[in-house]
Amino acid sequence: MNTEISLASTGTLTKAEYDESQLLKSAEDELDRSAFLKLLTTQLQNQNPLDPMKNEAFVAQLAQFSQLEGITNMSTSLTDVADVIRSDRIMSGANLVGKSVFGQTGRISTDGETPEKIEVSLPYGAEQVDIGIYDLETGVLVRSIVAGPQSSGIAEFAWDGRYADGQPAAPGVYFIRALATIDGAATDVTPGTYSQVETVSWDAQTANLNLNLVGGVVLPMDRVTRIGEGGTSLAGNESTGE
Description:
Number of domains: 2
Number of helices: 3
CATH topology of the largest domain: Immunoglobulin-like
Radius of gyration: 33 Å
Low-confidence stretches: 1-11, 230-240
CATH architecture of the largest domain: Sandwich
CATH class of the largest domain: Mainly Beta
Number of strands: 15
């Protein structure tokens, strides 16, 4: 004897029909492989013996289940692969801690003695390049480097680690800014410099490894152009310190 359940809005349902309707309602929210299999089993248990499910319909549902199972397994495998890649990138990035990387950070470090390399990208050349080095806390200009006409490409400069009066600068991190005069107009450009890596972190939103540099700058790994030591003395560019 079937148990009947009263529903004010839909009349009466047998217990089997009610159970199937609840499964369908749950499936609308999230039909995972367990719910799919349970739904199929319930359907088979409660089918009309005089009008059973046709073979074609049963095979079609089994095929859907198989497809769902494959997608679930694939999703799990891709998640595992992503976790392995992330772990591998973090471990690789950990090897950079304490080393110097070259990138456009807006910062430059000095020990007060070793010349620090500066690069400015000039796709169209420039009539003049003005580089300013500022105290990170006060914003006071401590050194300026002025260079004449530059051809297109990478213009290379160096800061000798001294203030404008020739005294050695206090070791630490400074803010650096560059202006390129192109067709008579001054344009902001971000110089490339070496910075030391303090820690590394993973950005889940961009799926990228970030390098946390001395001076509080965060540099994505894909924006690093070089890995090595800073303090490269350069020649061939005439510059004036003011």
